[in-house]
Amino acid sequence: MATRTVYLPQALPHQLPVLLSPARQKLVVCGRRWGKTGTGLMATVMGHGPHRTAMAGAIDGATIWWVAPTFTIASIIWRQLKRATKDAWTEKSETEHRIDLPGGGSIKVCSADNPDSLRGEGLDGLVIDEAAFLDKEAWTASLRPALSDKQGWCMKLTTPNGYNWIKEEFDAAPGRTDWEAWQRPSSDNPLIGAEELREAELDMGPRAFAQEHLAQFCDTANAEFPGEYFRESIWFDEWPPLDSFAFRVMTLDPSKGKTDRSDYSAFILAGVARNGAIFMDADLSRRDVRQIVRDGIELARGFDPHAVGVESNQFQEVLADNFAEAARESGYMLPIHCFDNRLNKVTRIRATLTPFLSRGEIRVRRSRGGRLLVQQLRDFPCGDHDDGPDAAEMAIRLLKQLYIQGGQDPAVEEIGFEPIFSP
Hints:
Elements: H1 16-20, E1 25-30, H2 36-46, E2 63-68, H3 71-85, E3 91-93, E4 98-100, E5 106-111, E6 125-129, H4 136-146, E7 153-158, H5 165-172, E8 179-184, H6 194-204, H7 206-212, E9 235-236, E10 245-253, E11 265-273, E12 278-285, H8 289-303, E13 307-311, H9 312-330, E14 336-339, H10 345-358, E15 362-365, H11 368-379, H12 387-405
Parallel strand pairs: 1-7, 1-8, 2-5, 2-6, 6-7, 9-15, 10-13, 12-15, 13-14
Antiparallel strand pairs: 3-4, 4-5, 10-11, 11-12
Helix pairs in contact: 6-7, 8-9, 10-12
């Protein structure tokens, strides 16, 4: 029988505490070039823990996945895994990015570009590379359930990505059973010299260096809202009954094109509960004017808003004729409220949203659009897009107006639509 050889790196001293820990759930927040890929290779092939087979690897017959946030990163991992196991596999699938090892174990490299593709298979072990750059839903809805029936292990290896869900898991780890977390700088790796790191800090600046090499959780540079505003408590999954809201509104910040470089058109659905909490969902997409109108009518039919807000100039210049035509065709009439947004956008968003965000009174639905909205809020005003924050600001302003006026809204436009509030 031919000898089968696996080519793995030798574990370095800074990797040993992770590899020898008995914890079933391991979170390693580390700097660039710390040695994540080497640690992942050893864990997936040979397993890890205080003794052999404590957390079994593929060489022990275990079914293992190695998940990356993008196809590009997954492809790099796949090439390195193939090199390490080139004389050991019994079967290799380029289509599935899977190798089988003697004894029946396997390692499959997956991309989380499509979280739904990660559902289905029960796993003995899982490595998540750059976990902070995965959508949390890929972990909670797809990957975590795959570990349950076999009580499988998980090792998350990642550089930080602001104050997102990985920061929350890191903070919670000390109080959780069978969990351990580490926060380690790039300088742990003896192959990276001190002079190289000093040059990197000069090139990158202190904030980027702190995140990328010191493994520190950092807010978006110069962002308006601190990361602590966007903890797990901001999310909700399903709308409360619509009749439980005192008022419901829909607002729109339209874009004027449908290209990769154009802004998003942003719809915000918002309801204010009777205790004052504001629930929001978002629909952000690049679409032309006719699609904006079609989507707007469809969203309004389902949400039944008391008022629909849009900036006056944008409405009159871009949307009025199309909405009027759609209203005549569909027989569905929207209560349009036009805003005169003369105040600077950054000033408006800051003044309106800060009190509600700081008090934790805004809840965002954990939908695709809701996640985009929160990301734009986290990056505001430094991000590439602010359509979601702009529409969210109008939604809160409109809710406040309706609340103060008790539902009386004399500013509703009547261009082919029937207002639901009497002036």
